């Protein structure tokens, strides 16, 4: 697949990506390479990745536990200390190999260690390939609040190797599909249509779907790197989705949701709100709801869940002057940002979701 040029870096694929990575290592004369894995990506992906490196530069491996609960400032401090103890300096390259937690936290650690060292993202999950590793957002959670601390800082490159997807369980693959579906809904009607009959997709061509999803996100970010305008469209499904994800993460009586599982719910809820605000048609809303529910399990909410989820909305990063700002759908393929929504309409969306 052809490389994609982003703002100040490139996104390369498969064998060409490894050629580009080795060229970057060679031309930048790094003093050391530090590879950040979680225990899953270390076990399942390290052999393929390390065998692709062509360098005599010293390599150190850092491993953390997997999962969203590790994406916090305490983990950052531990890794900053390891970097220091093992002699990392301003000419160290940090390579982040793993899912979205690894690319998010790794980019943040690199951006802040010694006021910034180079980093490369090598996503190994579908979600990270089409979303988390692209666009320069790096950061950590604050308690159960998603992505409250972070920076926007670009990597030296992103390397997409879809062979790593063979290591994923089905629920992780499905989680990544949520962001791909979102890209179609906010930007590309023909791309969205491919997910309406998922069973008919020729998965021999799945790499091309991944490539197009990355293209869509990159095109949006290129127009608005710092999220002052059109980049906010990428938050469709995420205002309520992040609140739901945080609520399920902190509630011991709830099963922890994968990011994409929560965003799938958020997209249905925010599509309902779009319909009720006379942006979407009824037919479009039901098309979105039925398509997403054909791919993702319906999540159960009880009457006591709504208020805690509403309380979490105040922490959404798009909020301005204390007001919650939604990115909704004006129609399938087009978004409308900075939309205010009252709590009664949100409650009605949850009510409709259960039917």
TrEMBL record:
<keyword id="KW-0547">Nucleotide-binding</keyword>
<dbReference type="InterPro" id="IPR030963">
    <property type="entry name" value="DHQ_synth_fam"/>
</dbReference>
<keyword id="KW-0520">NAD</keyword>
<dbReference type="GO" id="GO:0003856">
    <property type="term" value="F:3-dehydroquinate synthase activity"/>
</dbReference>
<comment type="function">
    <text>Catalyzes the conversion of 3-deoxy-D-arabino-heptulosonate 7-phosphate (DAHP) to dehydroquinate (DHQ).</text>
</comment>
<dbReference type="InterPro" id="IPR030960">
    <property type="entry name" value="DHQS/DOIS_N"/>
</dbReference>
<dbReference type="InterPro" id="IPR016037">
    <property type="entry name" value="DHQ_synth_AroB"/>
</dbReference>
<protein>
    <recommendedName>
        <fullName>3-dehydroquinate synthase</fullName>
        <ecNumber>4.2.3.4</ecNumber>
    </recommendedName>
</protein>
<feature type="domain" description="3-dehydroquinate synthase C-terminal">
    <location>
        <begin position="176"/>
        <end position="319"/>
    </location>
</feature>
<feature type="domain" description="3-dehydroquinate synthase N-terminal">
    <location>
        <begin position="62"/>
        <end position="174"/>
    </location>
</feature>
<dbReference type="GO" id="GO:0046872">
    <property type="term" value="F:metal ion binding"/>
</dbReference>
<dbReference type="Pfam" id="PF01761">
    <property type="entry name" value="DHQ_synthase"/>
</dbReference>
<keyword id="KW-0862">Zinc</keyword>
<dbReference type="GO" id="GO:0000166">
    <property type="term" value="F:nucleotide binding"/>
</dbReference>
<keyword id="KW-0170">Cobalt</keyword>
<dbReference type="GO" id="GO:0009073">
    <property type="term" value="P:aromatic amino acid family biosynthetic process"/>
</dbReference>
<dbReference type="Pfam" id="PF24621">
    <property type="entry name" value="DHQS_C"/>
</dbReference>
<keyword id="KW-0456">Lyase</keyword>
<dbReference type="InterPro" id="IPR050071">
    <property type="entry name" value="Dehydroquinate_synthase"/>
</dbReference>
<dbReference type="InterPro" id="IPR056179">
    <property type="entry name" value="DHQS_C"/>
</dbReference>
<dbReference type="GO" id="GO:0005737">
    <property type="term" value="C:cytoplasm"/>
</dbReference>
<dbReference type="GO" id="GO:0009423">
    <property type="term" value="P:chorismate biosynthetic process"/>
</dbReference>
<keyword id="KW-0479">Metal-binding</keyword>
